[in-house]
Design brief:
Elements: E1 2-10, H1 13-40, H2 46-52, H3 60-80, E2 99-102, E3 106-109, E4 112-115, E5 124-127, E6 135-140, E7 145-152, E8 164-170, E9 174-179, E10 184-188, H4 190-213, H5 219-256, E11 259-266, H6 278-286, H7 289-302, E12 306-311
Parallel strand pairs: 8-11, 11-12
Antiparallel strand pairs: 1-7, 2-6, 3-4, 4-5, 6-7, 8-9, 9-10
Length: about 325
């Protein structure tokens, strides 16, 4: 089991240079792999290209992570292709790419996380109030760089004391409703729905201004596109915050009441071959039941609860 911590670290020329170098390594891997497939009919393995593509500006394991990222995307495409024949393989070059540091490239000294970029290069220093993580990934959010640290959690932090089983029904109007035979808890989704509706309205308005009123390539158009990304990113963060706070509250409440196991209704196939009108179709396709289910699952497992999916029928 893993959990993550996030920290905003701003924007510096040093980070831009490292992200550009990672993008260059990823693009070289992509180009060389597909040229080999096209001309030789050979599918190379990660170990072959990790030896071929290295960088003097990055730690050796950070450079390896760039190559491994391409092969991870390739594996994901091959699995998805079984269900969707029109799925496209990874083919776009990256000017900038995420920077991944493994445990071997990190040191924690006096509250400062030191991220090595290889012998002779300036390390990256980040103020870090937590313990040493397993991995750190630095990516661009659209406004600034963000560090995402992953920690391995071997065992649950606590164990439930009761023997109750609670059923959880996911919904579009209410995020989740739980019942254990005696107590019922409801997560009101009104605030979440209002944020989603505002996001849709704002996106439609900005798209209309960008496509209908402005000339392609103009500075005004580029400035508005940047503003659109920034505004939508802010709303997405607010939506995530609402989901996190609501699911944490529900799991904490169930834990305190002695619930040992939660059974979540499986609605993953609800969108398939269903036509319930324009408005209801839109609601179904924007219903973030997968995100809510994922958050409930890992937060319950973190405190020692068992989780099961059950067909609602």
């Amino acid at each position: 089991m893993y959990h993550v911590r996030r920290m905003k670290i701003g924007k510096t020329p040093h980070l831009d240079e490292l992200a550009h170098e990672c993008g260059s390594l990823y693009s070289q891997t992509l180009i060389f792999f597909w040229r080999t497939v096209r001309h030789k009919g050979i599918w190379l393995k990660p170990k072959h290209l990790m030896r071929l593509f290295t960088s003097k500006k990055l730690h050796a394991h950070t450079a390896d992570a760039c190559v491994q990222s391409f092969f991870a995307a390739l594996k994901s495409w091959r699995q998805r292709r079984k269900e969707d024949p029109n799925a496209k393989p990874p083919h776009k070059r990256k000017r900038y790419f995420r920077i991944e540091y493994k445990r071997s490239a990190m040191k924690l000294v006096d509250g400062k996380l030191r991220l090595s970029n290889g012998k002779g290069n300036e390390p990256l220093g980040v103020d870090w109030p937590w313990e040493l993580p397993n991995t750190v990934v630095i990516h661009w959010t659209g406004v600034e760089y963000e560090a995402i640290a992953t920690y391995e959690q071997a065992e649950p932090q606590a164990q439930p004391w009761g023997e109750k089983i609670a059923g959880i029904d996911l919904g579009e109007i209410h995020m989740a409703v739980s019942h254990d035979g005696t107590e019922t808890h409801l997560l009101n989704g009104r605030l979440l729905r209002s944020k989603v509706q505002y996001r849709n309205k704002l996106q439609a308005e900005l798209n209309s201004r960008i496509d209908g009123r402005m000339k392609k390539g103009s500075r005004r158009r580029k400035r508005l596109i940047r503003s659109k990304k920034k505004q939508l990113k802010k709303i997405e963060q607010q939506i995530k915050d609402i989901e996190h706070k609501s699911t944490t509250h529900l799991i904490s409440t169930l834990f305190e009441e002695g619930v040992q196991m939660i059974v979540i209704g499986d609605v993953r196939a609800i969108r398939q071959d269903v036509d319930v009108g324009t408005k209801n179709n839109q609601k179904l396709h924007q219903w973030s039941h997968g995100s809510i289910r994922h958050k409930l699952t890992y937060k319950a497992e973190r405190v020692g609860m068992q989780v099961a999916l059950q067909e609602e029928a």
